[in-house]
Amino acid sequence: MNGLELARAYYEAYGAPMLRERFSELLPVIAVGLCGSGSECWGYDDLVSRDHDFEPGFCLFLPDEDTVDRRTAFLLERAYAALPKAFEGLSRSRMNPVGGGRHGVIRRADFFRDRCGSPDGALTVEGWLTTPEELLAEALNGEVFFDGDGAFTRIRTRLADMPEDVRRKKLAGRLILMKQAGIYNYPRILAHGEAGAAQLAIHAFADAAMRAVFLLNRRPMPYYKWSFRAMRELPFGGNLAEAVEFLLLSDNEPETARTKEAVLADIGALIVGEVVRQGLSDAEGDDPEVHGYAVNGGIADPALRNRHVLAAV
Fold first, then answer.
1. Structural domain of residue 291, as residue ranges?
2. Residues 231, 289 share a domain
């Protein structure tokens, strides 16, 4: 049983009855689930993950104090803390009985403000450009077990719908970095004898390529710890994870370097192919930089289009 399954089972066994019996007035406005920080929120937890912050628990998301006052929130915290301390052979933390911010009672506005700077997920263009994608991913991961009025789910749906102009700006920058860091600069840096800098170029290419793949799937890339696992699950580009890992893990000796140059070009061509398939560029050839400028040129908002092409990276 992974963390998400554990959380749902614990909620269904103890949390749902507690809410029905003692806080029925909150059912129209409360949301319950497990999402946010931690590998268990992705379903990626394993035996290694259980060395810290792994316990039966779930999140109770409340609206603001105008709807649910502090006293009621406090009583709910106490009720949550009083739930059974052991479940399925696992014990809850004694030091943070209400979850320490990961579990327990959390104001809905605080959860989203911590991740995107907005209590209701309504972002300006600047907010979309500057919010780290891994934090957006945290706002969208996990599962919602119950959502009385649907407000929590509506905010998540809003955050999952990145404006197309913003997606284009982010994607354009990633495509250009792919060309500059990897396809163009990697062999040149090696020719200068700078093996360390060459590997930094590979890293820059890998990060840009992975982020481009997530953008093409209309999903934010999670924290780097889980980026490869999440990438393998994507409809487009999941099969590129192995090639990106090869770039990062292999040496830069002459024979390997030649292979890496070919892999860089292949990854670039495959990503460009999807860019064209989605109608984001009508440029010709496989050069990611050329297509990056074409993607940027398709931005409808002139103010955003005319900002530096790397403004979103």
1. 164-305
2. yes
Q: Are residues 243 and 129 in the same domain?
A: no
Residue 233's SS3 state is coil
* Bridge partners, residue 104, by sequence: 59
Each residue of 134-170: pLDDT tens digit?
A: 999 999 999 999 999 999 999 999 999 999 999 999 9
Q: Is the Cβ–Cβ distance between 135 and 121 less than 8 Å?
A: no
Indicate whether 62 and 117 sit together in one domain: yes
Q: Does residue 147 contact residue 153 with C-beta atoms inside 8 Å?
A: yes
User: Is 143 in the same domain as 20?
Assistant: yes
| pTM value > 0.85 | yes
Q: Write the pLDDT tens digit of every residue in 82-132.
A: 999 989 877 887 544 444 568 999 999 999 999 999 999 999 999 999 999
DSSP states along 16-51: HHHHHHH-GGGTTT-EEEE-SSSGGGTT---TGGGG
177 and 37 part of one domain: no
Contact 38, 3 (CB under 8 A): yes
Has residue 313 been placed in a domain? no
Residue 78, C-beta contacts closer than 8 angstroms, at least 6 positions apart: none
Mean predicted confidence (pLDDT) in 37-47: 87
- How far apart CA 163 and CA 168 sit, in angstroms, is 9
